[in-house]
Design a protein that fits this description.
Elements lengths: L6 H15 L6 H5 L8 E5 L5 H7 L6 H12 L3 H18 L1 H7 L8 E6 L2 E7 L3 H15 L4 E5 L2 E7 L9 E8 L2 E8 L4 H7 L14 H9 L5 E6 H9 L5 H13 L10 H13 L2 E11 L3 E11 L3 H9 L16 E6 L5 H13 L6 H12 L1 H11 L5 E16 L2 E15 L2 H8 L18 E2 L15 E5 L2 E6 H11 L10 E6 H14 L6 H4 L6 E10 L2 E11 L4
Antiparallel strand pairs: 1-2, 1-8, 2-3, 3-7, 4-5, 5-6, 6-7, 8-9, 9-10, 10-19, 11-12, 11-17, 12-13, 13-16, 14-15, 15-16, 17-18, 18-19
Helix pairs in contact: 1-5, 3-6, 4-5, 5-6, 5-7, 10-11, 10-12, 13-14, 14-16
């Protein structure tokens, strides 16, 4: 712990400010010109992000555990930890007041920021309009904690360094904070960082080939239908090249130098010719993870952000097998405006055995000669029998195309000092090629169902008569077949959605989906607790004003494995 001094300080403030708001630097071309084309990691806000409006429209969440963490840091004797605690507190206070955040950190109402690596060296850049605000913040905390910086200068840029690690054999690692031309730069300084590399991090020298010299960013935006607001990627090809070569890219050269200083090469096994070839072959098939915004709609009252991440793949055998598993995702689970919570798994069970066989075959042939890969391959082969049994077992459920469920609405009241469920509108559905035949087969395993006859769009059966529930739950769930869907529903809204579902034909339109409305989930629970005179735990109180909705999906397409999410926030004042 003593080796970690101020790192997390500005990084937590800086990086947090990035993740929470996403920002980026003054002149896009200018900043991209200093990012090497072989960077393993890059993410940046390509257009100004309305941070002030976003903070205003977001829930004011102050997690008690965060407060406790800050207090714990203050209890330590170490000045560096006090310094960190003060910066965390300043950032946390800013999340409650957009004007204060902008003022404290010298930001514009709309900002841009980048995070990338020069090989191993992390670089964070943030656009500021009042550089003095950053220095004032750091000066104030230095005076209060006694954690003092050292000053350095490279060419025309003056910077501060704060120790990350204590001296070890005369060597140290420091956090570097610099400002130039309206850009705040946070990076690492130490003996392993050459002057040329530091100059590049500070925007004083350009790489021989930069991201600005390539079409990488525009290609990602076009390929994955991102907006041009924010884009990022993890470059697997460059990471593998760095691990398997001694001078193949900037990362490789840095690792080679560090290995020389340590007197041993931990990557020696990976740098054999056979490992180099096999690992690079895998990287070519899984070249990159790309991510970025697909939607940015922000005002002071409400914000909606769409974000996607794609694990890119050129392995058509595995992608084909995964795409074959896609099943049915119904409409009713996809609207977070109308549901409390809803989820759906799309899975064509009849394809499970073939897909598992294809994936297993691809992963185990040809046999790897590289020792680490051969070990992994051996373990995969050992699990092959279990996967085969799973595939055979799935044949018993052939015809299933997915399962879904939703709670549309619910309410809780107090009755004799006890919480009581007043209403519970919900729906559970299994999506099938032939639901009548599947239900008739199910009856053989459930004696209570043997006297029940269900027909397509025929009369529903009350499950209370078969599986009685306590009267205080006020549940009267009904079992029915609606088109290609075996459903259990409760309440009027459950019935309405089941009737709509009957009109939907099965199609292979997805793998997984989840949506929820945090306020609709929590409000009835809060109301019931108040009616019963119960005290809501402090750990949960901060969630009570969380007026936010989210939708998450997982898909397989020709580009790879895709995760999409949409988050909608409404201002606490609304």
């Amino acid at each position: 712990m003593k080796k970690l001094l101020i790192p997390i300080a500005v990084v937590a403030v800086g990086a947090s400010a990035y993740i929470y708001q996403q920002q980026q630097s003054s002149d896009d071309n200018n900043v991209l010109s200093y990012v090497p084309s072989d960077t393993p990691l890059f993410t940046g806000q390509l257009t100004p992000f309305p941070i002030k409006d976003y903070i205003a429209s977001s829930p004011h969440l102050i997690d008690p555990s965060d407060q406790a963490q800050i207090e714990a840091l203050h209890d330590q004797e170490t000045p560096s930890l006090h310094f960190l605690a003060n910066l965390m507190k300043a950032y946390q206070d800013g999340l409650k007041d957009a004007d204060l955040l902008v003022k404290t950190f010298g930001l514009a109402d709309q900002v841009r920021g980048y995070f990338y690596t020069l090989g191993l060296l992390p670089v964070f850049k943030l656009e500021v309009v009042n550089p003095q605000a950053i220095w004032d913040l750091l000066d104030k905390n230095e005076q209060e904690t006694g954690f003092i910086h050292k000053e350095g200068k490279l060419k025309d840029v003056t910077y501060r360094t704060y120790p990350l690690t204590e001296n070890n054999n005369g060597k140290s690692i420091n956090l570097l904070v610099a400002q130039s031309n309206g850009i705040l730069t946070i990076t690492i300084e130490g003996d392993f960082v050459s002057e040329d590399l530091l100059a590049m991090a500070l925007g004083l020298e350009k790489p021989s080939k930069s991201l600005a010299d390539t079409t990488t960013i525009s290609d990602i935006i076009e390929q994955h239908q991102f907006s041009d607001a924010s884009v990022g990627f993890i470059n697997n090809i460059e990471i593998i090249k760095g691990l398997t070569s001694k001078d193949g890219n900037q990362l490789a050269k840095q690792l080679t130098e560090l290995s020389k200083e340590e007197g041993q090469n931990p990557f020696e096994m990976l740098q054999t010719e056979v490992c180099k070839n096999e690992l690079n072959s895998i990287a070519q098939n899984w070249p990159r993870t790309a991510f970025g915004y697909t939607q940015v709609d922000i005002s002071k009252d409400e914000s909606t952000l769409g974000f996607s991440a794609i694990i890119e793949s050129k392995n058509q055998a595995i992608l084909g097998a995964l795409k074959a598993l896609r099943g049915f995702i119904p409409n009713y689970t996809q609207n977070f405006e109308n549901n409390v919570i809803a989820t759906s798994i799309g899975l064509d069970v009849s394809q499970l055995s073939n897909s598992l066989t294809t994936i297993l075959s691809d992963l185990t042939t040809p046999s790897f000669q590289c020792a680490p890969l051969a070990d992994i391959q051996y373990q995969i082969k050992a699990s092959g029998q279990s996967l085969a049994m799973l595939g055979m077992g799935a044949n018993m459920a052939a015809g299933v195309k997915g399962i879904s469920a939703a709670i549309f609405d619910y309410s809780i009241s107090e009755n004799n000092d006890q919480a009581q469920l007043d209403s519970f509108d919900s729906l559970l559905a299994i999506h099938l090629d032939n639901p009548v035949a599947t239900f008739n087969s199910l009856k053989m395993f459930v004696p209570q169902l043997q006297q029940i006859e269900l027909t397509d769009n025929g009369p529903a059966v009350s499950l209370n008569k078969l599986f009685p529930t306590p009267p205080e739950l006020n549940l009267d769930a009904k079992l029915a077949i609606k088109g290609n869907h075996l459903v259990i529903y409760n309440g009027n809204k459950g019935l309405q959605e089941a009737e709509k579902l009957a009109l939907e034909k099965l199609s292979a339109n997805g793998i997984y989906q989840l949506s929820f409305d945090a306020k609709k989930i929590l409000t009835p629970i809060s109301d019931a607790a108040k009616l019963a005179g119960e005290i809501i735990p402090e750990e949960a109180m901060f969630l009570m004003d969380y007026d936010a909705r989210m939708n998450i999906t997982l898909e397989i397409n020709d580009q790879g494995i895709r995760f999409d999410s949409t988050v909608n926030n409404k201002s606490p004042q609304k």
